[in-house]
Write a structure and sequence with these properties.
Elements lengths: L1 E3 L2 H7 L3 E4 L6 H7 L5 E6 L2 H10 L3 E4 L16 H10 L6 E4 L7 H6 L4 E3 L2 H4 L4 H19 L1
Length: about 150
């Protein structure tokens, strides 16, 4: 399990990691208090932000928002799959997830742009059948990985 935004909760819960946004606890400081093997991820919507995540020692980055999202008021402007690709190119070797307003339809373009996966809220929680939506997302990621090698 990875906890979003709250390093204190992640550590207290014995989570595997924590995803820290640009305005959350600094990744570099989290590295100093996290146990060995603890996964720290960051968020980036620009080349400058992804470079900060890399310099701080993030293990992965969520790049976006791909589309506008009602789930994160502070998500910033949508960058689309093209913006994802541009930001990701500035972080060679850093695993990246497409994040923010992502739907099943976005998965092929994001994986083709170098994403290792996607992070979603609305695509599952806003679906009439969240279980089926999860299956469809998983199938899209699996197929995208098969096609992109």
């Amino acid at each position: 399990m990875t906890v979003n935004d709250r390093l204190d909760v992640a550590l207290a819960a014995g989570a595997a990691g924590c995803h820290l946004g640009q305005d959350d606890f600094p990744i570099a400081e989290a590295q100093a208090v996290a146990p060995p093997g603890f996964i720290l991820g960051g968020s980036a919507g620009s080349v400058a932000e992804v470079r900060r995540c890399m310099a701080a020692g993030a293990h992965y980055v969520g790049i976006g928002p791909v589309h506008a999202t009602g789930n994160k008021a502070d998500a910033g402007d949508a960058i689309g799959a093209e913006g994802f690709a541009r930001v990701h190119r500035a972080a060679p070797g850093l695993p990246a997830l497409g994040i923010g307003g992502v739907s099943t339809d976005d998965v092929p373009a994001l994986l083709a742009a170098g994403a290792v996966g996607v992070a979603v809220i609305g695509a599952v929680l806003g679906a009439d059948d969240p279980q089926e939506a999860t299956r469809e997302l998983r199938a899209a990621v699996d197929e995208g990985r098969r096609l992109t090698g």
